[in-house]
Amino acid sequence: MSADTKQYVSWFRHSSPYINAYRGKVFVILLPGEALAHENFHNIAHDITLLNSLGVKLVLVHGTRPQIDQALTAAGLEANLQEEPSGKGHRQLRVTDIESLTLIKKVVGQLRIDIEAMFSMGLINSPMHGADINICGGNFVIAKPYGIQNGIDYALTGEIRKVNSKAILAQLACNNIVLLSNLGYSATGEVFNLTAEEVAAETAIALNADKLLIYSKEPGILDKDGQAINKLSAEQAQKLIKEKSGRVGSDEALKNLALSVKACLATVSRSQVISYVDDGALLTELFTRDGVGTLITQGHYEQTRAASINDIGGVMDLIQPLEQEGTLVHRSREKLEAEIQHFAVIEREGMIIACGALYPHSDESAELACLAIHSEYRNNSYGKLIFEHIEQSAQEQGIKKLFVLTTKSPHWFLEKGFTESSVDSLPAEKKYLYNYQRNSKVLEKKL
After folding, report:
1. Domain architecture of the chain: domains with CATH
2. Mean pLDDT of the chain
3. Cβ–Cβ < 8 Å for 236, 294
4. What distance in Å separates the CA atoms of residue 359 and residue 265, rounded to the nearest whole number?
């Protein structure tokens, strides 16, 4: 077996937990007009097809802004974009008169046909062979006039009144991909021009979607050095919006941040911003642990919590390399199962990346043991997080003193407020079990 084949097999095996986790889940994907026009769109269509084949329920929302601008210019009409009123968001809205709307309908119709044609491909030896995808749409988005704002009459520009989630879910249950545009419909039979961003966010919220995936030109939300930020909580994203407001060239980032925050503060667990320029960005973001874009979550990405019997395998995978090198004392699976109630873990994307244990003794002291961090995350703050979690737990249990036995990391514990002690200071039962061959240093901390 070649090295490339082995690497492929390894990646495929590691992707299986994600495949299992995503099956039957609802994803809403925002495809701006720029993504549809980009040469990489046919690869994006292949990736979306793969998600559908794996059982993911998909709603695609496509934008049309650049295509509409081009059509209006060709027809000699003005784009007539207005900054949205302060406090409403970070975007420009188009004032839509009847003549513009007629042209917009044509653009939307043509793009829809092109998208349907793309997902109808099924050539032998192509990624879409045998996919048999059905694309459906309808009057799922109910709209109302945006009205007059700051003296500007937005005419046939609208905003969403309601998303018919029941009808959309019925189509998803039939394994159809639902395709929505930037058009909405009123009870009086009018058609309104919406923003694709609003359609995507409101649809994701109405469906209680598991993910809102946003394609952008940049590979996520960029930091001051131009690198994609890996993850943000909704609260952190809100702060970043304030920091980026008014900066040159930050319009797309602001729009995507505001969109993600809106979704995550409502019902959507996660929003992810990825690049439509980079081939395979969708699959890399979804099926690898760290992804390539920016993840915005309702709360903190990592979860620090008490361990359960279901975490045995993850904890063993974490501590075995440290046991083999002699940093940790060996624990059998049976021993770990018997003591798992003493453990706390940090979970990231279904993987245990840190653990620690607290063993109380009868003299109001407790041992901090088996503190382990995954090798890929030791330069982050996870050691501090798991330690603080265990220390708080000890205080809640009325523990007066923590002690630790270590051969490798005494300085780390000294930085956390521990002081050097001796074997004689240990509780009697722990002193009796002390391994003089390991010659571990004893450190303690009063709580």
Report:
1. 3-297 (3.40.1160.10), 303-446 (3.40.630.30)
2. 89
3. no
4. 38
